[in-house]
Design brief:
alpha+beta; 2 domains; five-stranded mixed beta sheet; 7 helices
């Protein structure tokens, strides 16, 4: 057993002791082990006498991560939700005035396309194109701009492509590239109803718990 595995199992033991001391019951069915990468140890962990199951993908704070750190499914989900909101906006508007449409897009649609993009930035061209397509669709409905090329429509509306925004074209979106590879940190939090705990064991293993404690 590697040192990292021992450390994580020690932390799990401490967590269980803390829960017992505070009269809190852990929900072990909601705790999974996510092994990242192909050549990592498939170590097993336990809480008390219960061995925790493994998972191929987990979702936390609205971001879905699989064992290969592939963000395609997350990009598909973001584009789908943004497109649905965009269609609701278009159906509810009789006109296509830019002074109304663009602020609605910027406040209601684009946040879904850029949510946590520092971590789940598109890895493949098809994923980037899927996100860009949502913005292209909104610029096409603006009165008088439908027949213009996409770049000219963006310039006319004072917008940047999503790719340029991800690369830090605007100052408040400039983020060091290293943040997209930030390692998972161990955190511990609790409340009277719900708590979540995550830890880092051997290289490439993450432990996640959702709705971990109950009074």
């Amino acid at each position: 057993m590697s040192e990292g595995t021992c450390l994580l199992q020690r932390d799990l033991n401490r967590l269980e002791e803390w829960a017992s001391q505070n009269s809190m019951k852990s929900n072990k069915d909601k705790c999974k082990v996510l092994h990242l990468g192909q050549n990592t140890q498939r170590a097993q962990y336990r809480l008390e006498s219960v061995w925790l199951g493994s998972s191929l993908a987990e979702q936390d704070l609205g971001i879905q991560v699989d064992n290969k750190l592939n963000m395609s499914q997350q990009c598909i989900a973001a584009a789908t939700k943004a497109s649905w909101i965009l269609s609701c906006i278009c159906r509810g508007m009789t006109g296509r005035d830019r002074d109304v449409t663009i602020p609605l897009y910027s406040s209601l649609v684009r946040p879904h396309l850029e949510y946590c993009v520092q971590f789940r930035s598109p890895q493949f061209k098809e994923d980037a194109d899927r996100l860009e397509r949502v913005q292209r669709n909104i610029t096409k409905v603006i009165k008088g701009l439908k027949n213009l090329p996409n770049e000219e429509r963006l310039k006319e509306l004072g917008l940047f492509s999503l790719e340029k925004r991800r690369l830090g074209e605007r100052p408040h979106h400039s983020v060091p590239a290293a943040t997209s590879r930030m390692a998972t940190k161990r955190t511990e939090a609790h409340s009277s109803q719900v708590a979540m705990w995550r830890g880092q064991g051997e290289m490439g293993t993450s432990f996640t718990g959702r709705g971990f404690f109950s009074m």
